[in-house]
Amino acid sequence: MQKSVLMLTKLDTRKILINVQNIQTVEANPDTVIFLDGGKKILVKESLEEIYEMLQDN
Predict the structure, then answer these.
(1) The model's pTM
(2) What CA–CA distance (Å, rounded) separates 58 from 53?
(3) pLDDT (tens digit, 0 to 9) for every residue of the chain, 58 residues total?
């Protein structure tokens, strides 16, 4: 079963939940930027690789 929500950490250390269906792309630039539907961007502490691992089926 795939995850439907990711728990991530914003740069100011607040925890957030993101619905994976709303994610368009994730970039490492060098900070990790998540682009959501509607054009919103969120900067998070987790690396691109960490997010990829979270999304994999276990």
Answers:
(1) 0.85
(2) 9
(3) 567 999 999 999 999 999 999 999 999 988 999 999 999 999 999 999 999 999 986 4
